[in-house]
Each structure stands twice: as C-alpha cells, then as structure tokens.
C-alpha cells in the first residue's frame, strides 16, 4: 500500500489511544505456544466448514427469476467476496499473523464463541480488542 508523504500525516489529528488499544500495544507480539497449536489445529476445520457453507449457498444462485447472466454475475461476485474472506483469515498462516487471523475469523462469523473460548484469556482479550477496532 502506498504511503502518504510525511507532510500529510503530520496534519491528521490523532486521538489519544484508548485503554484497550494501549493494552494491546503492550502485549507480546506472538501467541502463546498453546494458542498457536490450537489455531494450527482449528484453522483447517474452520476453512472446510466455511467452504462447505459457501458451496451450499452457491447452489442457491441457480434458482430465481433473473436471467442466467445475472445469476452468473451474482455468483461470481459472491465467490469473489468469499475468496477474499478465505484469504484474510487463512492465507499465509504464521504465528505472527495468527492473532489478526483469529480476530478476522470471529468478525466474519467463521469462528464460534465456543471455539474462541478454547484460547487463553489473554488471546481472547486481544481478539476482542482487534475485532472491536473493525466495527
């Protein structure tokens, strides 16, 4: 992503970071080992479940009153959006990306609350902070 010149950045007013954001910044960069192993185990399960739901919904694009071309365009758009969600949540899975990927899975409804609860309290807290930033 291109960066703006420093002169533009200097003119943007900046709010003081909230307490949640400050705590997030001071937390360790990587997941605890136990949470990393949990994410490694859970990610393929979540990916398959998400893909199954995409395929199930894709079949519904063949019904309705619209033309075949309109159905195709709607399906194409839906698959593109779904592919983008897969990329954000599951591509380039590394420990340094994991907390953001877990938060993305929660925001998109790919990970349930019970699945999130299997992570440590610290990880859950970080995920909720990151998820709230996206709202």
What does this structure look like?
- With 135 residues, the chain is mostly helical.
- The chain has seven helices and no strands.
- The chain has one domain (30-133).
How would a textbook summarize the main sheet?
A: none
**How much is the average pLDDT?**
83
Number of domains: 1
- Find the count of extended strands (DSSP E, 2+ residues): 0
Helix/strand order = HHHHHHH
Give the helix proportion (percent range): 55-70%
Shape: elongated
How widely separated are the two ends? 22 Å
Q: What proportion of the residues form beta strands (DSSP E)?
A: under 5%
In angstroms, what is the radius of gyration? Answer: 19 Å
| Structural class by sheet pairing and helices | mainly alpha
Contiguous helical run count: 7
Residue stretches low in confidence (pLDDT < 50, at least 5 long) are: 1-18, 20-26
How would you sum up this structure in a few lines?
The chain is built from 7 helices and no strands. The chain has 135 residues and is mainly alpha-helical.
């Amino acid at each position: 992503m291109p960066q703006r010149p420093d002169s533009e950045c200097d003119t943007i007013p900046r709010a003081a970071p909230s307490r949640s954001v400050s705590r997030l910044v001071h937390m360790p960069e990587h997941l605890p080992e136990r949470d990393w192993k949990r994410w490694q185990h859970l990610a393929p399960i979540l990916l398959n479940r998400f893909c199954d739901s995409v395929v199930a919904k894709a079949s519904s694009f063949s019904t309705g009153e619209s033309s075949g071309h309109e159905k195709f365009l709607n399906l194409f758009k839906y698959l593109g959006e779904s592919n983008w969600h897969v990329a954000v949540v599951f591509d380039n899975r590394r420990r340094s990306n994991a907390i953001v990927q877990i938060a993305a899975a929660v925001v998109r409804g790919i990970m349930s609350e019970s699945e999130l609860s299997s992570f440590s309290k610290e990880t859950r807290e970080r995920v909720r902070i990151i998820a709230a930033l996206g709202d």
